[in-house]
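Take a look at the protein record below and flag anything odd:
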Amino acid sequence: MGLFDQIKNTLVSQAGQAARSAVNKGVNNLAKNVKEGIGKGRNHTEKFKFQKLPENLEELKALPEASLNTAFKTAALCIAALTNYEKNPDATWEMIEFLNGPEDVNPSLRQFIQERLNEKMYKVFAFFKGATPANNYTPTVPYTLEVIENPYSFDDENWATLYVQSGGDDKPSPIKLRKKPSTGQWFINDIQCLTDIRLPASQDKWA
């Protein structure tokens, strides 16, 4: 083998090693980024605190969460607004209409919420910290609420399913939301979190 052939083979070998090294480095970096992304952005909980729960649309809009620029904020305000239902249904519907975005609140949703919360308002307060069956779901103040994301919450573009944990249930319950791309705001799509939970002590004959 001539001198030039030896030089050529050496250069080709070095180029191959460099290419393989670059590929391996790129794959490793990608795996690291994916792992960190899942850990930080695809499976976490956001906490919200309210010194006072909103009683009308003006009070709701005055809250910083009313920007609705994250699905978490909209989900939290949904629960906060529903706490007012027994006290003032009309004002509550105005808040829900705001959180519902460009879609009108349909009659079936109104009927669903009415049926779920009739004489069972404790279901809503049970989502706040400190509320348990033993204390008749009386939350601590400030009213603290956690909104939970799982690895599948944002699988569909412009859609999200987040969760809230009730003090009377063993597993979190979902709220479905939809994003309006032109504004970047998130709105309620389906309130699925008002299922039956353990009775408060005052209503449980076995307590």
Observations:
- The radius of gyration is 26 Å.
- The first helix runs from residue 3 to 41.
